[in-house]
Design goal:
The structure holds 2 protein chains of 2 kinds. Chain A is of the alpha+beta class. Chain A contains 25 helices and 23 strands. The radius of gyration of chain A is 34 Å and the shape is elongated. The two termini of chain A are about 45 Å apart. Chain B is an alpha/beta fold. Chain B has one domain: Rossmann fold (3-Layer(aba) Sandwich). In chain B, α3 runs parallel beside α5 and α5 runs parallel beside α6. The chains are: A alpha+beta, B alpha/beta. Chains A and B meet through α22 and α25 of A and α2 of B. The complex binds adenosine-5'-triphosphate and magnesium ion. The site of adenosine-5'-triphosphate (ATP) has 10 residues of chain B, from α1.
Chain lengths: ~800, ~220
């Protein structure tokens, strides 16, 4: 104990004696550890513990799959769910939910929130209980009894001011009066963004449906049951159902996923990749500090040799040196936590405001005990990483040399170690630069590539007609028609239209279709295509070129020949752009409900999802398929957001209870869709630049040290006739040899590692040659600069001075 | 060949200057073998560095083959030096991480000599110094005397007309020292001018002239 305290005292004294070294080491390490702390905090909050459910690892999500149709992650049909529930033993609870748009009225302003219709055991699966009131009971799912709701903590606070008497109130949702029976704990946030939970009405019609795949299934496994066991069991059940119901269940299987894995798969890739990045940055920082320590240790050779001569064991000396490293590491770690706070603020600031809706654990992003433990862990790890090599090196018993010959302190192996560290740093930073380069290229690709429409000067907002209030289709069509006339009359609006889902808005509708004249496809091999419902001026408003035929017109009314417009890809798949006009398709289903639709136009392909290839897509006129929820697109001659207020006013003059929400310019919609790409190119670029700076510093440090150690040699060379440029070349060549070796190794590493970034890339290969070349060039130039400065100093060596010490 | 007139060298010493060399007039003719002697701190090394054109900060006149060295800029001076002067140091100053062969090649690599010529010149020199067998050894594998022989070989490899040696046998015992002095004698007999600094009268006897320095003044042997 005494020796330990002594070690600490001595270490602290040593660090204070060399404030420059200590400061640089702490700063470098702080940056590395800070970045890791911030990223680990994200991983912990968003990926590891996104939900505060007890025994979260027992909670699973079950999706349909259909290998024949190449479908994974398909929603589940109600009747199949009920069979699963009856025929499996793996689950303590197996629940089902679907989501719905909840229009809350009767408050100061109509509000549209995310609602979920659930089976009564939904909360049992999560293991969470309401903080006020009661859970659902099986009876609540019975027809006619479904007039209750459980609401989120935030809705309770926001719309009811946290009224303690809330359980005696009702809430008007989509014109229905629901009794509030419970309030959920703060931050429940499952499924993402949920604010109202209501029981599904289980009518016989609903419970027997095997074709409407619109439900999500979650379950809580019995204790001790593994996901593999649950999977094996459900495989049996689905096989049985497939035999029993060949018409609806052919090819239909189910996959059991851990709920957390399933939730995070939409956004875990960029987070893991960024974590990898900051991990590399920390390694680079450690290599830098190890190099500094080695340089310092050189000066301490004599002192250490003396200690050894006086009887200190090697272990004793190493412990002494490691104590110093660990103290530096812990101070660096503390500084890192501070930077981590800022880093997390930056993450919050760099993400769209409603990130919580995309990532469930967002609210718990911050520095907490697990994060602090992680930081402590990596601090100690770093201390060992950068302390061990120098300690081993310096404590090597070679007293004789050190005591005898003070001038020749630097052993060859120390030089080699320092050089290897620099090569390693350069290689790591090249990998990071390539990664960042690819990410930036992806983003640039998105910026430069036309999505197939013109997003400038377009205002969008979503409007929802509640089913209860507008049950008749003609009434809905008429309302939207009327609203469109009013919007068009607003000054500054050039043209306007409605579409059910905005391009790049994150939602799509799709359905199977039949082609007239083609044989009906085998079950499981249907033609599947995304479709959109739009009003006449949609293509003109969005500037989507019509390449054959016509767009929709006012004449495409309900009750007459249904028409359809297809995209170029669909036209080419079945016919050709020319021949498509006049051909007919229809939805797959009973013919009396799904009449043939005649193709009247072919439009250019539109990018509806940034990272997906364009598939066959078709458009229906809203008058013939009057959806109740639509998105307005208005092309304006002025700044689109400046007239949003006037347009909303028009909505409310028609119906003061209609919510008009998600008011965004089309460019903002695009920006949200591209946010993963822009966010990762900024963060990865940032860390890659830090890595580049650290690596350059590393090269600089090693070369400067080498020059200082080689003063005499350089003096000799100059005495023998070397000119300034000879010396310059000598030093630069030495440094660049290391840099080029690092670049070479880094290129191989990048080649092997960038494949893990595929999910973040669009429009660029993971092995894009241009990126590899440009990045290598940048690193080369940075290394050249880092070598040049010490080389310049080398040329200032005065042979007189260098040679005097005989 | 060399002619110094009124050369003075001083180091700033606080507000005043400390003179290390005072009004040095010295002539050295081709083929001479000059020994500079004097007590420690007399300025011998300083004088040698001025002759070797490494030192630029002094006053007075220095003619080398009638070329006024004191008016030359660094580049021209370096070129003149590279063409004419070779150096031998007391502690050899061989590069430890290079072989004997590479050490000999070094001065040539800083002069305009092609790779092929370098090879043959170094081989000739090794031959002349009877060190062919040692060409692949590193300096640390040689005895002090052998190292200094390499030092001399390196000094002559670029065929200088004059060799400047600062206490070349200072680190050697007498038997090794004799070998070195014999080598200088041989080189001098072949026509190379030699200027050495030495503390040993025995070594000085190899030469044909002694210049004595005391406190920066030449006391005899001008
Ligand atoms: N850079 C310097 N700054 C100040 N004084 C110096 C410097 N270099 C040398 N001197 C002084 O110049 C004087 C002459 O030095 P020099 O090395 O020429 O002596 P020396 O005759 O070669 O002596 P030795 O026999 O010990 O080698 C000494 O007094 C020395 O202290
Ligand atoms: Mg001397």
């Amino acid at each position: 104990m005494d020796a330990f305290l002594n070690d600490i005292r001595y270490a602290v004294r040593n660090l204070i004696k060399r404030p420059g070294f200590t400061l640089i080491a702490v700063l470098t390490l702080g940056i590395g550890i800070g970045a890791n702390t911030a990223m680990f905090s994200s991983i912990y909050a968003l990926l590891l513990k996104p939900l505060a459910f007890p025994e979260l690892d027992r909670v699973v999500a079950i999706w349909d799959n259909n290998p024949i149709r190449g479908e994974v992650h398909n929603e589940v049909a109600m009747a199949n769910y009920l069979d699963w529930r009856a025929q499996t033993q793996s689950y303590e609870h197996l629940a089902l939910y679907r989501w719905f748009n909840a229009n809350i009225t009767g408050l100061d302003q109509p509000e549209r929130v995310q609602g979920f219709a659930v089976t009564a055991n939904f909360l049992d699966v999560t293991g969470v209980k309401p903080i006020l009131g009661r859970n659902f009971t099986e009876e609540d799912n019975q027809p006619g009894k479904d007039v209750v709701a459980i609401i989120s903590h935030s809705l309770w606070q926001r719309s009811f001011g946290g009224d303690p008497n809330i359980l005696n109130k009702t809430i008007t949702i989509n014109t229905y009066q629901l009794a509030v029976i419970g309030v959920l704990p703060e931050h429940f946030n499952f499924p993402k963004g949920g604010e109202v939970y209501a029981p599904i009405e289980l009518t016989p019609e609903v419970t027997s449906n095997r074709t409407l795949h619109g439900f999500y299934v979650i379950g809580r496994l019995n204790p001790g049951v593994s996901i593999e066991q649950a999977q094996a069991e459900i495989d049996n059940v689905t096989a049985r159902l497939e035999k029993q119901y060949p018409e609806t269940n052919t090819g239909l299987g189910a996959t059991v996923y851990s709920l957390v894995d399933d939730m995070v798969r939409a956004y875990d890739k960029p987070i893991w990749v960024t974590m990898g990045f900051v991990g590399f940055v920390l390694l680079i920082a450690c290599a830098n500090i190890a190099n500094l320590m080695l340089a310092r240790a050189t000066g301490r050779h004599k002192e250490i040799a003396l200690r050894a001569a006086l009887g200190a064991t090697r272990w004793r000396i190493m412990r002494q040196l490691l104590t110093e490293s660990l103290i530096v590491a812990l101070i660096g770690g503390a500084f890192g936590v501070l930077l981590g706070f800022w880093g997390i603020d930056a993450l919050r600031w760099g993400n769209p405001g409603d990130a919580a809706k995309f990532a469930a654990g967002w609210y718990q992003l911050g520095i907490n005990v697990p994060v602090l433990l992680f930081t402590l862990g990596i601090s100690i790890f770093s201390g060992l990483v950068f302390g061990l090599a120098p300690a081993l090196q310096v404590s090597k018993p070679n007293l004789n040399d050190a005591l005898k010959d003070g001038a020749r302190q630097v052993s060859g192996s120390s030089h080699r170690l320092r050089s290897s560290l620099v090569v390693f740093e350069v290689a790591l930073s090249l990998v990071l630069l390539v990664g960042a380069g690819l990410s930036i290229r992806s983003f640039l690709y998105l910026v430069k590539t036309s999505p197939g429409f013109n997003p400038d000067n377009v205002l969008t907002m979503r409007i929802l007609l509640p089913w209860g209030k507008y049950p008749e289709e003609p009434k809905r069509a008429a309302l939207y028609h009327d609203l469109l006339q009013r919007v068009k009359a607003v000054p500054g609006v050039e043209s306007a239209a409605f579409v059910n889902y905005l391009p790049l808005g994150g939602s799509n509708s799709s359905d199977d279709y039949l082609v007239e004249g083609d044989p009906v496809p085998q079950p499981g091999r249907e033609n599947s295509g995304r479709y959109r419902v739009a009003t006449p001026d949609y293509f003109q408003t969005m500037r989507i070129p019509i390449i054959r035929g016509r767009g929709f017109s006012e004449q495409d009314k309900a009750g007459i020949q249904p028409v359809v417009i297809v995209n170029e890809t669909m036209a080419r798949k079945h016919w050709s752009v020319q021949d498509a006009i006049g051909k007919r398709i229809r939805f797959n289903g009973p013919p009396e409900k799904n009449p043939w639709m005649e193709i009247v136009g072919v439009v250019e392909d539109v990018t509806h999802e940034l990272n997906l290839a364009v598939t066959p897509e078709y458009y229906l006129p809203h008058a013939q398929d009057p959806w109740n929820a639509m998105a307005l697109v208005a092309r304006t001659t002025v700044d689109p957001t400046s007239i949003a207020g006037q347009i909303r006013q028009q909505v409310w003059t028609i119906d003061k209870d209609l919510p008009a929400y998600e008011v965004r310019s089309m460019n903002e919609v695009w920006g949200l869709a591209a946010s993963m790409y822009s966010f990762s190119s900024v963060t990865l670029g940032f860390f890659a630049v830090i890595a580049l700076l650290l690596a350059s510093l590393g090269i600089y440090g090693v070369m400067a040290f080498a020059v200082s150690q080689r003063t005499q040699e350089l003096g000799i060379r100059m005495a023998l006739g070397a000119t300034t440029s000879d010396v310059l070349k000598l030093v630069v060549k030495h440094g660049m040899k290391l840099a080029l070796l690092g670049i070479g190794i880094g290129l191989v590493g990048a080649w092997a590692l960038t494949r893990f970034m595929k999910a973040l890339l669009v429009g660029v290969e993971a092995t894009d040659l241009l990126t590899f070349a440009v990045v290598s060039g940048c690193l080369f130039i940075a290394a050249l600069l880092a070598c040049y400065l010490p080389a310049r100093r080398a040329t200032k060596v005065d042979p007189l001075v260098a040679l005097r010490y005989e | 060949m060399i002619s110094l007139r009124g050369v003075e060298k001083a180091f700033p010493h606080g507000p005043t200057k400390t003179y290390v060399l005072r009004r040095i007039d010295l002539d050295i003719k081709p083929g001479e073998f000059v020994s500079i002697m004097g007590p420690s701190g007399a300025g011998k090394s300083t004088l040698l560095h001025i002759l070797g054109m490494h030192d630029q900060s002094w006053s007075g006149e220095y003619f080398f083959d009638d070329v006024p060295v004191h008016t030359l800029d660094g580049k021209k001076r370096a070129a003149l030096r590279n063409r004419n002067i070779g150096f031998v140091f007391q502690s050899y100053h061989l590069l430890d991480d290079q072989t004997v062969f590479e050490n000999l090649e070094l001065p040539l690599s800083y002069r305009d000599v092609s790779k092929k010529d370098r090879q043959s010149i170094v081989c000739d020199t090794l031959d002349r110094f009877q060190m062919v067998g040692k060409k692949d050894l590193f300096p640390t594998q040689l005895s002090g005397g052998q190292q200094q022989l390499v030092g001399i070989a390196r000094a002559v490899v670029a065929s200088p007309r004059i060799i400047l040696a600062d206490e070349p046998t200072g680190n050697l015992h007498s038997a090794q020292g004799k070998e070195i002095m014999d080598m200088f004698k041989r080189l001098n007999d072949e026509g190379t001018t030699i200027v050495q600094v030495t503390h040993s009268e025995t070594n000085a006897a190899y030469g044909n002239r002694i210049v004595r320095l005391e406190d920066g003044w030449i006391v005899n042997g001008q």
